[in-house]
Amino acid sequence: MYETDGLSPQKSQLGLRSTLQELTLYDFLLESDCPGDEVAKIFQANPLLPGIIITQQGKFTGMISRRRFFEQMSRPYSLELFSQQPLLVVYRFTKTDMLVLDRKTSIMTAVRQSLERSPELIHEPIVVQVEPETYKLLDVHQLLLSQLQIHELATVAMRESQAQLRHQAQQLELALLELQRTQAQLIQTEKMSSLGQLVAGVAHEINNPIGFIYSNLHHAKEYTQGLMRMLNLYREHCPESIAEIEAESEKIELDYLLEDLPKVLNSMQQGAERVRDIVLSLRNFCRLDEAQMKRVNIHDGINNTIMLLQSQLKGKPGQEAIAIHKEYSDLPLVQCYPGQLNQVFMNILVNAIYAIIEWNKHENVDTKSHNKSQVGETKDSDTNTQSSISNSTSSISAIRICTELIEGKKVIIRIFDNGPGMTEDVRKRLFDPFFTTKPVGKGIGLGMSISYEIVVNQHGGELKCFSEPGKGTEFAIEIPLQQSSLAKILPRFA
Known about the structure:
Number of helices: 16
Distance between the termini: 40 Å
Strand content: 15-25%
Helix content: 40-55%
CATH topology of the largest domain: Heat Shock Protein 90
CATH superfamily of the largest domain: Histidine kinase-like ATPase, C-terminal domain
Strand order of the largest sheet: 9-13-14-16-15
Largest sheet: 5 strands, mixed
Number of domains: 3
Shape: flat
Radius of gyration: 29 Å
Mean pLDDT: 77
């Protein structure tokens, strides 16, 4: 039914000129008449298999990825329709543009071409032609691993050749920077693409039933009020009591029911409104329909981000709540990539919340209260300005967000927290790719690096951090109101 001669072995050493044939390639082959349930068994038995190559009479026809296959089979009635159908039928429903590369294509070239694909195709396997009639599959995650290995080897080579080959060392340094940026872009593009599609699907599925519930609650309240008026009229004009009715009335506690029912309906309406607001915040945060530069209200993006973080801000057993203080100025609409800026707000706020929570777990209460009294008193030596967010309730864990219009040309968003602060060494490395102070599994060191790229390279702005141990942290995001024509055509993250 299918053929495989295993995986092409990955060589231990890679270099800047390494090609795709040096990476792990998958060659699972299936004839087009193979039933769909056989494909599912193969994927379940091989959890690392990115996809399957489809052939007709031994000739290459195309490929179907693991993600596309299970997406199709998970749709309503798809399992019944396609499980016994030939694989070719499923392939016609899931067919997408394939990226086909020669085995001698360099890893760096493959990365660049992979990034040129549309966001929905970014995580699709790459088809590698190893012989004129022979094709294998490459998992895009292998590109990330190969870039990391190349990065490590290039670093060693640079250190060993500094004395004799200074010119070559400079070239290697440039290549390293490009590798880091490319790797970060690939990871972030895939993550945001998958997240955006997931959020959009979830928001859409929730929005329909909640809209039905919300729209009918108004009628339910009206019907209930009408029934209650009718019941009161019966009581008023038919005062004669019937034993059976009186017994049932006492059983159901009619008086309490009449008093509590409107409250229950109001509570249901408030809950429906809350769900509706959360769905709206999800859609606005991702801004999937606003991938291009637009004029938006910055405050809306901040508020949507805060709403999505409410679960982390609320107090829990062993964890005090984190207060959010807003000091918004009257700002005009700002020309920007709204989805990207929302991502910046999310990265900064998540880091602030994490720092405060972890500090609360390990620091003495008296020490925290003393330090928190000075929260936000950070000085910008470049602009010779001082911002303060201290107040009488500063002993409470808090994050303060301030916005300001500068000279009618720039907008500054300042985000303060009264967490532990950071050392000078950590602050200097904060925006380096893959640098993180979080434990293994808690972060990959790309959030602040990507945020810096978005603010500086995509919006022509500035992202600064001011912090001292025990005195909290301030992030200052400065972007122009109007983007230059050059910024509008620069490549950007999806």
